[in-house]
């Protein structure tokens, strides 16, 4: 009863109540201070048959006798206070059970972690998870597991399954300044390193391809191109800006005005504040003027427009307003009357060679340019992928590589009003079948269409404090409500919670440092990855030889 | 205190002490009106020490069964005419190392203020422990459960234990 020498140093308390839907309640042992508990920390609960792995989601103070709450002991008798701590007054933790991980003492450690389907019995001991437990759950770094960070207060490595990550659309959320860009860069690096998919990154602020900026002391960090060299190609919309930053872009993207369809333009409805009538006019203009409608309309003078208005029975005022807006877009320097070189084809060719593409926007980082270009390219890439996959149905070897398209300010593409218009909405909803998924980076997940949000498999979330955003991120996550307090209490820097498809259970991490150690790791990873590639090649050649020698 | 032969001693806590006449039929009457001090009263009446006696009761809290110390009631009462000894520090430490004796004490229905008794027992027991303070804390925690978080009783006991 007093000092138990057999007590494990990790032991925290025992399970006293709970349910699968609401989580477990555990009473802390006398000698464990509530102040040492932290939400988001891992615990293991040793039931009779199963070992449960869970996370602390809440910490509470409780009292056995309501009298104590009504008339607390005064401070004059410190002994009494000390005696009451942990007995009459005690700490409770709420634990969300996430997985069962077999039972170490029964030798069933080889059993892979399974989602929990029951709860441990009364008085099952709750202990802090050891590094080994964490490793069992999250796996060690290997061909598909990429090390992203460490759990809070623990020195174990948390790995994310980048193969699963690429299988479904994913999202990176967080308030501005919480490290979304760093996380994105880290995950992109992981995908490039493990070669589970090819990336197409619409890099609005030129942060991923070549050198990004860091808010800390180090002014600059390496971009993907610097880390992976030839595996990554940088495309740019603004060659001058790229050159000014010392980047030799692989290709300068230009889009012909005649390539832009009325649908592409309609997408800018929100940004340009177009009325329904204006959208309607665009379609009619396009029907009348043909492929080159945008340039022709932009070049019109006032009297011509009056004529057009009269012909179509349109309001000349509307048409003039529309003209101003069309002109603004047509003036974007990367839009040319017509282009010889098809950027879409180039991007696709690179992607199919397994080369990741980062498209820098340079100075054209306005939202309208970003929306226009991202949607324009994605629409066409999406079409090509559909075709290729349909064609490859009979021959798996011809399947294109899985593609992940990264977009920032995603709610602009995926808001409830526009999600059905953009190719992104389509991809998010259905294109997993066609091997294209999205990686959306956004600070307002609540502004993303609920349909789309529900299709986002892996969610990586930095601090969010708006109630609706938290709600949106946690929607559809089992036991999501329990994570609410964890999510709202993340540090504003270098902390994130991973949820969903690519991790076996929600996990709070201190993000891995994006610095010299990371660069070295990546360089090493590249070597082994290439080594494997040669191995693969040898194996294939051998197979081919065998095939023909028969 | 302890009573009994080595290997089957019974341990208890003194819970009541009274002095009176040897002859139960006679009450002790007041004396010594003309004496200067209490001591001279006894010097001048040496027969008094043989006519008066002091009795005490003890609450049995456990016994020894061979090598084992058990904190519960013994299977049989102590033998009549068994010699009663005060426990030395070593014995006290041995008996109170585990806190189970507290439940026997705290729930006893003796004719004495139980809380005072528990407090006094703890005071004596803690003094012979290597870390008296930690011992009191642990004992207090055990008592909290036993007393069903009765804060007033607990605080009385702890006050006595520290006095």
Strand arrangement in the largest pleated sheet of chain A: 9-8-23-22-21-10-20-19-11-18-14-15
* SSE class of chain B: alpha+beta
Oligomer: heterodimer
| Helix coverage percent of chain B | 40-55%
DSSP, total strands of chain B: 5
- What overall form of chain A do the CA principal axes indicate? globular
Low-pLDDT parts of chain B are: none
How many domains of chain B? The number is 1
Structural class of chain A: alpha/beta
Number of strands of chain A: 23
Total helical segments of chain B: 7
What does this structure look like?
The complex is a heterodimer of chains A (550) and B (163). By secondary structure, chain A is an alpha/beta fold. Chain A is 39% helix and 22% strand. Chain A contains 21 helices and 23 strands. In chain A, strand 1 and strand 2 (23-28) form a beta hairpin. Chain A is globular, with a radius of gyration of 28 Å. Chain B is of the alpha+beta class and 163 residues long. Chain B has one domain. Chain B has helices at residues 38-44, 48-51, 89-96, 101-106, 114-127, 132-146, 151-162, and strands at 2-3, 10-21, 52-65, 68-70, 84-85. In chain B, strands 4-3-2-1-5 form a 5-stranded antiparallel sheet. The mean pLDDT of chain B is 87. Chain A binds chain B through residues 1-3, 30, 64-65, 67-68, 71, 73, 77, 79-80, 82-84, 86-88, and chain B through 98-100, 133-138, 140-145, 148-151, 154-155, 158-159, 162.
